[in-house]
Write a structure and sequence with these properties.
Strand order of the largest sheet: 4-5-6-7
Oligomer: single chain
Helix content: under 10%
Length: 428
Amino acid sequence: MTHQPCGHMLTHAGVWSPDGQWIVYDVRASDAVFDGTRIECVHCQNGQTRLLYESRDGAACGVATFHPQKDQVVFIHGPEHPDAAWSYGACHRRGVLVDCHNPGIGRNLDACDIAPPFTPGALRGGSHLHVFSGDGQWVSFTYEDHVLAQFSTETDAQEMNLRTIGVSVPSVPVFVPRTHPRNHDGAFFSALAVRVTAHPKPGSDEISRACEEGWVGTNGYRKPHGAWQSKALAFQGHVVTSRGQTISEVFLVDLPMDMTCPGAGPLEGTPTRRPSPPRGATQRRLTFTEDREHPGLQGPRHWLHSAPDGSRIGFLMKDAAGMAQLWTISPNGGAPVQITHLPWSVTSAFSWRPDGARIAFIADRSVMEVEANTGRCARLTSRVSEDRGPLPFGCVYSPDGERIAYLRAVADGAGGWNQIFCVNSARP
């Protein structure tokens, strides 16, 4: 579809505009280096490109996703005028919102306040990979804390920086004092959603890292007794097994509708303690895989996407033959169900078709689909040589479910460049 001599990167979700006509991307050369300075979109029929935002003053930007109903994108923005004390990194980045009808004008999604006393609703570090909830109201992100990054160990007196997950909600804008040159205001109120600890007890449900999250259902999920949970995130949590091995398991956090009320501790944290989740945020573990031959979630980096109706959460785990397969589990727990039974591993992130009938992913150098209820797979692109195959990044359905966007490298006289392609979903 696109043929400019530059890199193109898709994220794992939300790359299509609500009308299904445009695909948003950034221009990083690869996912290993955050070096892009433009957020663009390309028309899926005629290849026309539009510049939505260009960063300046030494800042980079990337990893863009669309709002599900509005012509609006959110993406990672690095620091302007980076220096030795404040350069791009996990603790030094933010989310930025841009209206596609007013390109070039960015609004900070999350506020930042790194000088105590901290401000409720502001972060003290960096947010990453922002994704709108299915109804477009809230935004999830992963987070690392600048204030606690100064501590290399965790003690009773101080906590250390650990990756975790937060949410931004449009309740009120957050204004912070200019007590530090890197402080800034934000359009949304932000709070952390997940509890982490540096030293999980072996065999417990405590986690040292929370990451690769995804919203559960377009509008949440139904609990066992019929109540509806409107907002919840599934994520990977790192636990320590009874044998002392760190593995990744499926966790879920139910979120309260009011993210602004403090829970066990202050939302904004303290100089020695990480910010606390709001009152009513409840996290629980869904998978218990310690005793499997291949314990834990495994395979390529992937995010936990759920069926649109919220009934099943997808993830990757190895089968007895050591192949990474697609599995699902109910947000209410129970036994995992294996969906794919392929002779090769799934090699990419995946996404659900909007009707919940199929899941798209990459395996054996092809884009594939699996029927979620039967496990029957279809190869959508021909198997090609490894250097020409689909790349292990986004594999994302259009809003109507008819097309799947993905990346592959295309060689030209100047070298190889990641380019965006589309393939049609299989017919019933």
